[in-house]
Amino acid sequence: MAKKQKKQPNGTPATVALTAAGTPFTLHAYDHDPSSPSYGEEAAEALGVSPDRVFKTLVADVDGALTVAVVPVAGQLDLKALAAAVGGKRATMADPAAAERTTGYVRGGISPLGQRKRLPTVLDASAAMHTTICISAGRRGLEVELSPTDLATLTDAVLAPIGRA
To answer: Has this prediction a pTM greater than 0.85?
Structure first.
């Protein structure tokens, strides 16, 4: 009979993946307000971090394949640039239910790390300007701070200019 794995307190698949990889990171928790219009901007404000250092994880459909885009919360995703970054022709935002089902996370808490199914990932090139960036740790109200190089390595991300102001 297989042993049941113990669930780590406050652990998410993202933090478990970081710990397993031996990647240094800092966890930041804050009280999430469900009425907040922007999860990412709420995180930046709650943590006292510039919005250009807090990145949101979006799931798009590029020519029929789900793809992860990680862009600053202060801007928007350029879908044409995302498609070009992965050699595709057309990108649209993924169906939210498909994004949740595929990643194993809920909207507003999708992390590029520890996803149920590993998806191609593109990290906005602006991340390279920072020593560390913050991304979702896998649930609303929880962010993880790590180096963009470590994030790119762990997700096999392509760095490309996919964000716009």
So the answer is: yes
